[in-house]
Write a structure and sequence with these properties.
Length: 209
């Protein structure tokens, strides 16, 4: 009971205040102590209650998912993504990482969202996220997106949101590479939108195809 109250405690803070509260002297340190003491080291389901992902049921691990828990993760980009989606669009989240933007696409009215993500640990998170949001049209494919099908060596960065098929490396792992051409074929007549994120080695961007 106490843990559930703590997990929901962020909902008591007005959404706009969540963006700057950490800059108040001593608050950042108090937040870190709070997370370590009461909420770190375990996963819990949280319904995001504000921002572009409002209503998304997200498996939270603190302090890793702190910005998602507060509804302030990549706020400006998330707003732009949500505003770019028309009802019935088909959306590709390329380099989906842990699926936050896939959820934003679905909540914004997409008819079908395909998340592409090559790393198994991120795909496990995607499975949990999608299973807990059965009302959203979310699917995922465990591949990196390229021009041809095959296998590529991906560099694994310290931040698991980032992977690059390049010569700079800390460690490498093989990843399946597939073309997005065959995905969502039944929805081809409708608009198709793409979000390319850091896993593809690019800056986040959303554009109409």
């Amino acid at each position: 009971m106490t843990s559930r109250v703590l997990e929901r405690s962020v909902n008591l803070i007005p959404w706009q205040a969540r963006h700057w509260i950490k800059h108040i002297p001593l608050v950042a340190g108090a937040q870190r102590l709070f997370f370590r003491t009461f909420l770190s080291g375990r996963e819990f389901l949280h319904i995001i209650n504000a921002g572009p992902a409002k209503g998304l049921v997200y498996p939270i691990s603190l302090p890793f998912d702190k910005a998602i828990w507060t509804g302030t993760y990549e706020t400006e980009l998330a707003k732009a993504v949500a505003n770019s989606v028309n009802h019935g669009d088909v959306c590709y989240d390329i380099g989906a990482y842990r699926g936050f933007f896939s959820g934003v696409f679905g909540l914004a009215g997409a008819s079908h969202v395909v998340a592409f993500e090559p790393f198994p640990e991120n795909c496990a998170q995607l499975q949990r996220l999608f299973a807990n949001n059965p009302g959203l049209p979310l699917t995922f494919e465990q591949v990196a997106v390229g021009s041809e099908n095959g296998i590529a060596e991906f560099n694994v960065m310290p931040d698991s949101s980032i992977g690059k098929a390049s010569i700079e490396q800390l460690s490498t792992r093989p990843a399946n590479v597939g073309s997005a051409k065959g995905s969502a074929q039944d929805d081809r007549p409708r608009n198709l939108r793409r979000l390319s994120s850091k896993s593809a080695g690019n800056e986040d961007r959303c554009r109409r195809r």
